């Protein structure tokens, strides 16, 4: 099902449903207008971050000078926060909706949550509040290696030694907590997934975690806090947007095809940037592709994203169209994307194998490839478990260094986003296991075999991103390069990688 939105205000119903602030009102919100800040703080339950970050990262008005080379366009750093603020302030129905950041498999699950059923016979976990420091607890912790217990439990699960697995789980439960230190929180999360695998309820619980436990508004607030303390998503967006802007700097029509668009958080910054081009902005068309939701309106959530982006484009006088495509990615054809010959086409996605052939048929001027750099996609359970334990321990450690343990948004993100991913990786198998990351080096070979040529990194963009991460984020975040890949990570571990490609024939 496809739906076309126009940014002229005439043929877009859902965009007009959102009340508008003019640009001056918007600007005052990020600059500290007292009335708007009070309303905002009340809505966000006094969460720090979204307004605070926009105030010290506001580079909207001028280009950013980088080194001695030509200036790089401003990245309009706070655009995503304004966009997210408006969603949470104006869309009351987000309290009743599931979150698009979570996988669409959950939308096809039964309404009933089996999470409580699984845990109703388990002893209550210790440390329901922030753990108290104490000599007794510290001495106990020294005697317990939770990672070793988790790995031994995974071995027992793999050979169907349920008695041993359950005994180990009892020990893990005694010393783990969703409110403890990073290792305790990690163990609590992985214990849930191991228990679900033992009970044969992995898919049920994976789905229930998204359908019944938190509203879209709750998770989006947590996502906003994540954006503040972690540069991964925002630096990825800057890398992609600046690469797209440079590639399309002289054209009058741009068509971006975004596989997995979700809420469209990447595009407000790009819209603001192209609005300031000398001679006026180009016409921007975005085709948002995502999985359909069940029911009579499979494209409804993608259409809502189109409405929000059309509203944003209208405020900056950018001619805009949005095409919503709600299909499984392996069923999409080039015809669904309605490509015109006189527009420059750019593809943006974290692709799967099923999409690579389609991208080749699209023949885009540029393909921006983002990779979750992980090796926990292995078919063998114990190998996958160990790699997942290593990967996710970095994320829990990152939160420990950047947010207080009692922070509600941290707990929400760890439970509803990381916990869901771990549940899928550990407790699901076959076609139900969606989380199957590969390393960027594996994608390097795969892309080349598929007929794509890698484009070199832009040194200006890399210098600017390095400077931003150094200035605004924890010192343990890393920005590096390997060949033509930009790498992002934590304490030496590469977590995300990005690069730009084009069909080898172009």
TrEMBL record:
Keyword flag Manganese: no
Keyword match Hydrolase: no
Chain span(s) of sequence motif VHIID: 254-258
Start and end residues of each stretch annotated as SAW: 427-502
Region (VHIID): 223-288
Transmembrane spans: none
Keywords: Transcription, Transcription regulation
Renumbered residue ranges of the record's region Leucine repeat II (LRII): 304-336
Pfam families on file: GRAS
Sequence segments annotated as region (Leucine repeat I (LRI)): 144-204
Superkingdom classification of source: Eukaryota
Name of the protein this chain belongs to: Uncharacterized protein
